[in-house]
Amino acid sequence: MTTTTLTIPRIFDRPKSESGIWSWIGTVDHKRIGTLYGITAFIWFLVGGLEALLIRAQLAQADSEIISPETYNQLFTMHGTTMVFLVVMPMSAAFFNWFVPLQIGARDVAFPRMNALSYWLFLFGGILLNVGWFTGDSPNGGWFGYAPNSGITFNTGSGMTFWAIGLSVLGIASIAAGLNFIVTIFNMRAPGMSLFKMPVFTWMTLVTSILLVLAIPVIGVALIQIGTDRLYGTNFYNSLNGGDPVLWQHMFWLFGHPEVYILILPAMGIVSEVLPTFSRKPLFGYSFVIFSGIGIAFLGWFVWSHHMFTVGLGPAATSAFAISTMAIAIPTGVKILNWMATMVRGSIQINTPMLFSISFIAMFTIGGLSGVMHASAPSDAQQQDTYFVVAHFHYVLFGGALMAIFSGIYYWWPKMTGYMLNDRIGIGVWFLMLLGFNLQFAPMHWLGMDGMPRRIYTYSSDQGWESLNALASLGGLVLAIGILAFLFNVWYSRRNRIVAGDDPWNARTLEWSIPSPPPHYNFAEIPEVQYRDDFWYQKYPELLEHEDGHAPAPAGGQEDEAAHESHDEHDEHDGHGGIHLPDMSYYPFLAAAGVTLGMGGLMAGVWVIVLGSVIGMWGIMGWSLEPVNDPDPDVEH
Amino acid sequence: MLSNLLPRFSRRNLLLLLVPAAVALIAGCATDNPQSTFDTAGPVAEDQANLFKLIFWIAVVVFVLVEGGIIWITLKYRRRSENEMPVQTHGNTKLELTWTFIPTLIIIAIAIPTVIAIWDLAEPPSDEPVMTVEAVGHQWWFEFRYPEEEIVTANELRVPVGKNVVVKLHSQDVIHSFWVPKLFGKVDMVPTRENELWFRADEPGVFFGQCAEFCGVAHALMRFRVIAEPEDDYEEWVAGMRRPPVSPTDGAQRGQTLFAANCSSCHSIDGHRAGTYQGEIALQDGRWDGWLADIENSRIVSAPNLTHFGTRLTLGAGIRDLDRQTLIDWIDDPGSIKPETRMQDHGALYQTSDKTANLSAEEVADIADYLLSLVPGEADAPPATGGGGTGGGDPVEIGRTAFAANCAACHNITSDTLVGPGLAGIGDRAGSTVSGLTAEDYIRQSIVEPGAFVVDGFGPVMPSFAWLSGDELNGLVAYLKTLN
Question: Per-residue pLDDT averaged across B31-46, rounded?
């Protein structure tokens, strides 16, 4: 072993403190990073919601002049970009971070510092995207950024360049996070937890992570291309110089459709945890649900052109994409029926998380049905780019993904904080949100079929869309009150704490077997897993004898046993006091700041690129040379 | 007690509620809304709506079963005592295979008519006559070209009832989408591509169309009309488009001069003259190239052809009914009606501090009156071949008129540069510009083949005017030679 040690000058001491802002900046604890994701995403949710409210205010009446067309186009562009990339994705990431290690009996993710890097890149990328609100030049070419309208000839501001750069930064964060969770789930499961004993949420995290790692590079390439088109006059998508604007659409949607499943699969995972818990029954058809999820993710790669039915693909391609799109309805339908069957003959506890999950099924079904209408290309020719589509994907992404995320928030809040969210207020929140949501988005089906296109900042009274738009705007107001009521609930529940205990819901998975909130090291002893829903059968061993139909997969064969034993030894040796967790580090923050500055510098000037590169290299070098744990004088190694 | 009643009550109640709700749902859509996709007026939209309705009714059944099921299950199996422990069912492979199979059948039932309709609607029935028009998307208006009738117009597409119409779709700038909900679903207008759709209007009427692909600031204000008329009326319109307009009088006459000086570099009004069709297309391309060559400073942009503007129903790409006051407002300050028009951003007329027209109120009104006066003259008026409206036999006079109509927009007769160079003294200069050409040949070449020699400092943006009649060409040459 060589004894040469490279050292990089340390400007700050390695962070040690457990509180204060520096403890957050230096944290590599998956739970703290999850909290950072959750809070940041929720703030963006409020920003995106405010943008939506302004849109609804403008559209509430015909020929309205509340908002200028320039601002309106920025609002809908940033509303879509924000809700997809800064809300639903990181909300899912918050749950991945918090609960994947807890559900698989691990003490952290595989790469804790890379995990921190993902978060900081997400934060800084989101800020880059939103710089325009302060310079008056926000992205305005739609979240889909269709060329050549997003090109420099027709879009001369800096907004779309910031958009391309900001999304690229977010893309790095997503790829890093995806890799991290794939490795974590494959390598860090507690002994005995074979893949098919994993909780469904962890399964869906795995599938989503694989999608992220495969799909984000596609948009990454496209963003670099459109970025250089804008910055340096390349002609990838510049139709005026022979670039192909339709290629952009292929690239965007080749990413964009798997992205839809990146948004919805984690939600399906949450629902698959909540429904069994509050029905006191195992998930009906575990393997059908898992394989449907995998099937959806797989088929998701073969349907992208259904976003482009009107672009002139020709009847052969149109037929193929219509059929592949319809095929996705099959695994989706299977999931819906399995969730319903989970509830059948159960003992259904009606509370806030359960109501949100049930609403997820109900609303997602509506979105799925209108989805089949789009899949039929001739029918879609009338729906494409109308409010019917707006209704469709809000039923999927709000009625679906966000309902499930709220279900997850109410479900896991006691585990994360140690106290309950008030259920009565919670039911009020649920009611207001469900009511407001439907008031806002159901009328949009009619508006679309009455010929109202998307992305129009105004409409005329001779087009006959006034009353339904007024109704939709009213719904938006109710929905906003629902969100405020949620904030009130958080405030109220913090003041009037009801201590949760380890397992307030009588739940099924490992995260409920440890204290709330969990200690830094999660598990004092790494659990050994025998069954799917192992914690449930620890509590009710007698149920194992009353199995109807499939018995839960019993403990595995020889290999598993062997694995247990070797681990046991290790565990005892490690003991409670000797748990080693990675030390905190500033370097992920530095690396993320450097990358963001360097890329943002493309807009700001060479010196910013240089500064960013220096900081970024400093962060990466420091990170590489920093031991995971500083030598600890108290422990012999 | 109540708990036993509730599920049964709700089950019946659900059917009572959901089925009529579904009926009301589709009935609610069949309104007299001007852009309704249900109130169809032709076979394409009808097929599309029928496919939607088929899927809709299947969806209604699924909707009622699933949503009803969810509510029923939630109520029936809700927890009645804290200690109850249901049977731990893990699944049922047969059942699950069944409900994998059933959606598959439903999907097949939808996929078959879908694929049939995709191929059916791809082209018009081959055994029926078709007419072809071209639609070009611009930010933010639609140009319509009738290659067979040699007509160029804008924002209002006239078609005969009962005739299959093939529309070839282009775009000059960004992607737009061409859509008339009552007649046909949308197809995109993509630069670099030529898309195509077809439709037929089975009943006369004025149908609302609108751009359906986000195309920039004024996307919301990019509308148009399809005017379907009985065959005779349509033929009458075509014939009218071939006849010169009635002669303007009073204000309109003053407006004509003002229009020629301020508007005609971008807006053509002479589409009634035979032979102008190719020229107008070349001119429009030239305007576009000119704008693109120098976006910062261009004073020329592609613009709607205003031939027989007085017959139009709407203004500003279908966003306002055409009336005198609206037209005056539009000419004075287009931004008061539509934001960020290229007309206002680039037109020389609008390079003022407040971006309103550099004209007095009377002058604006005169231009409006002139435009409104542009309606076809009487059918028995002399046919507008060649030098329509020129009269007189003096070549210089013919040339002077032809210059005002065709050249004055870009060329001044002083030495000032407008879009092209000022032409004062051209008669003297021309002879020595290109060796081997006489002054007369040089001027003629510049008109017929402008790309052959381009004056330093100017882009090759001038279209060819080879379509001018022989008299006009001779006249122009004669007239230009007098400019010493």
Answer: 91
SS3 A419: strand
In this structure, the answer to whether residues A505 and A518 fall within a common structural domain is: no
User: Model's pTM, two decimal places?
Assistant: 0.89
Chosen from B84, B188, B298 to mutate, greatest number of chain A CBs within 10 A = B188
B214 to chain A: which residues are within 8 Å by CB? 73, 141-142, 146, 149, 385, 454-455
According to CATH, the superfamily of the domain at B395-481 is: Cytochrome c-like domain (1.10.760.10)
**Would you list the domain boundaries of chain B?**
2-78+93-122, 129-385, 395-481
ipTM of the complex: 0.90
Report if residue A576 sits inside a domain. no
Residue B9 has pLDDT above 70, yes or no: no
- Structural domains in chain A (count): 3
The residues near B349 (Cβ < 8 Å, ≥ 6 apart) are: B262, B263, B357, B358, B359
Poorest-pLDDT segment among A429-443, A556-570, B315-329: A556-570
Closest CA in chain B for residue A548: B89
> Both A210 and A295 in a single domain?
yes
Evaluate whether residue A577 is within a structural domain: no
Q: Tokens for B161?
A: 């009832």
Q: State pLDDT tens for residues A11-47.
A: 667 777 778 888 899 999 999 999 999 999 999 999 9
pLDDT in tens, A39-50: 999 999 999 999
Contact B85 A326 (CB under 8 A): no
Domain that holds residue A554: 510-565
Of B55, B99, B192, the CB nearest to A372: B55
B445 touches A: beta carbon within 8 Å: no
How far is residue A521's CA from residue A524's CA, in Å, rounded to a whole number? 7
pLDDT of residue A573: 43
Domain at B129-385, CATH from 1.10.10.10, 2.60.40.420, 3.40.710.10, 2.60.120.10: 2.60.40.420
The residue of chain B nearest to residue A460, with distances taken between CA atoms, is B319
A532 pLDDT exceeds 80? Answer: yes
Distance from CA of B289 to the nearest CA of A (A): 10
Residue from the list B66, B96, B217 with its beta carbon closest to the beta carbon of A334:
B96
